[in-house]
Structures are given as structure tokens and as C-alpha cells.
């Protein structure tokens, strides 16, 4: 059986396109948050940028840490462009912020900000979570 060069080119193009989509980093929404953390936290938080994506409730989750403003963005992207998020920002904040306050207590106390970005149809970005927010909501002391 002989594969025609045009067919081989089409298959290669699709493979490159799909693999490019899987590894493309999204540009997070703009923010006015400005924070800073000590150099040791900055180095540790930068490792989040190298973490592979993981499955998360019908999507893929990745991390994007920006050292210029000490902001960690947890990006959750739908796997299918036809799918849509069907919950709102307040629900997500109520469910995820207590856990985030506990999990990231030390870096938050050092000045880091954290937000969740649900990318895709019906998507949204949460408020930036800070140590002060955790204290105000009673999630930390």
C-alpha cells in the first residue's frame, strides 16, 4: 500500500496542530494586583510554570506564576470548544478559597496573590485571593 504525499502532509499537519494546541500557554486576563514575595518563595513558585497539565472536572488545569507581581493563576481550560462552564465565580470562590488559604498559607502571608481562571465559553476569573482576604473570611488566623 502506498501513502500519497498529500495524505501524509495532511496527517502531519493535523498532528502538529493538535500537539501545539495541547501545549499552548494562554495569556491570563489583566489584573491590577501587585504583590511581592521573598526570593526563596519566588524561586519555589516559579516551578509551578513547569508543572504538566492535569485533568480537572472536564478540563485541563495548569499554573501560571508571574514573578513581576507575585500572582499565581490557576488556569482551568475546557477540553472541548463546544462545552461551557455552568457555574459562577461566587460559587467557585466559596468552594475553593478555604482550601487555597490553607494550601498556600505561607506564600499568601509573604505577599503572593492567587486567582482561578476558568478559560473557555462561560468562563471567568475569580477575585485575587490574598492573606488579608483569607483572614477577613476567617479561613486563617
Can you walk me through this structure?
By secondary structure, this protein is an alpha+beta fold. Strands 1-2-3-4-5 form a five-stranded mixed β-sheet, with no helix packed on it. A hairpin with a 4-residue loop joins strand 4 and strand 5.
Structural features:
141 residues; five-stranded mixed β-sheet; 5 helices; disordered N terminus
- pLDDT below 50 for ≥5 consecutive residues: which ranges? 1-23
Distance between the termini: 70 Å
Q: Which percent bin holds the helix content?
A: 25-40%
Report the total helices: 5
Q: What does the overall shape look like?
A: globular
Biggest sheet, strands in spatial order?
1-2-3-4-5
Q: Topology as H/E string?
A: HHEEEHHEEH
- What is the number of strand segments? 5
Largest sheet: 5 strands, mixed
Residue share in β-strands: 15-25%
Radius of gyration: 19 Å
What is the arithmetic mean of pLDDT?
Answer: 82
Structural class: alpha+beta
Q: Briefly, what is this?
A:
The chain has 141 residues and is of the alpha+beta class. The protein has helices spanning 5-23, 39-46, 89-103, 105-110, 131-136, and strands at residues 54-56, 59-66, 71-78, 113-119, 124-125.
What is the element layout, followed by pairings?
Blueprint lengths: L4 H19 L15 H8 L7 E3 L2 E8 L4 E8 L10 H15 L1 H6 L2 E7 L4 E2 L5 H6 L5
Parallel strand pairs: 3-4
Antiparallel strand pairs: 1-2, 2-3, 4-5
